[in-house]
Amino acid sequence: MNWKTAIEHTLVTTRLNIKRFGGSFPIVSLGDGKYHLTDHTSWTEGFWSGILWLSYEYSRDPEIHAAAIRTVDSFRKRLDAEQSLDHHDIGFLYSLSAKARWIVDTDEDSRLLALQAADMLMKRWRSVPQLFQAWGPEGDVNDGGRIIIDCLMNLPLLYWATEQTGDRRYADCASIQAEKSRRFLVRGDDSSYHTFYFDQLTGNALRGGTGQGFQDGSTWTRGQAWGVYGFALAYRYLKEPRFLETSKRLARYFLEQLSGDGIAYWDFDVPQESSTPRDSSASAILVCGILELLEHLPDGDPDREGLAGAVEKTMGSLLDRYFTAGSPAEEGFLRHGSYSVRGNSSPDDFMIWGDYFFLEALLRLQQGVPGYWYERER
Ligand code: GLY
């Protein structure tokens, strides 16, 4: 199936989903192929908004546009009410909603909303350990000094805020976080910790650990994919070669672990049996990360060809074996994602972020539309 046909299939599902979801937001399915819906209480609402913006950019369908705008209006209410924003995923939420609308519609109110969200994210900065606290209240005994690899995808909102305002504070903190992530989350063999703990009072490094992975020293597949994409985006903004190199190393490690159909199991260190769940969402994120990486690698880079081949192979497998291809009974695009296998939370289901990154990959490949992590030429 070619990219264009695949995008057309996603549009069939998205048009049905606009009706099925109403004003609510999908997170994951719960074993029944139907999305569980939320009302702005999660870290995931931006992905549905992002799917609508990408779908509108492709189709120019006014009904999809109206639905996308409605999501941004609801994100404004969420910020005004400071509802469920006591975590670092404000970047995911507002990059794909308010910032997306700014990028697509040049809507000034949306730009201001995205900047307001960046200010809210800055409240997670902890000046003594010099990090963005991922989860929990300030001073929390367990999480007060904890960073997680996923945060690399929240940082683009901050780099962008500096570009927009000229205020260095956002990008300076984001760049400290990216460097800390490079030094402590990425291991010498190019695998990664999901999370790392620092002493809140001294900033001293304590230990790596996991939240959703198999065990503390294992490599949670989706975390590794967040790292590939997040470091490539850090390079786009900060132009530090070590971030590009780190993205490439993480991508190589990810690809070297794959077997069978080329789609990742949920953790690279979990015993692989026929019943071991995969995480198609990690592979979709990886593809977007590699496509971003390829934008920056020089022509003669020895890894270019292998990385480009991996994009084709991974997308081929996702399209052949995981994609629902517009089937009206199925609400997601990609089957066999996993949220938290260890926590027994949607171990083999639709993940709305898997759908978002799958569509972002298709639009990058079909027409060079790169998603909403950075400003485009206007
Ligand atoms: N950022 C949370 C996750 O990837 O599940």
From TrEMBL:
InterPro entries: 6-hairpin_glycosidase_sf (IPR008928), 6hp_glycosidase-like_sf (IPR012341), Glyco_hydro_88 (IPR010905), UG_Glycosaminoglycan_Hydrolase (IPR052369). SUPFAM superfamilies: Six-hairpin glycosidases. Its EC number is 3.2.1.179. GO terms for molecular function: hydrolase activity, acting on glycosyl bonds. Keywords: Glycosidase, Hydrolase. It is an enzyme of class 3 (hydrolase). It comes from the Bacteria. Belongs to the glycosyl hydrolase 88 family. This is Unsaturated glucuronyl hydrolase. The gene is ugl_3.
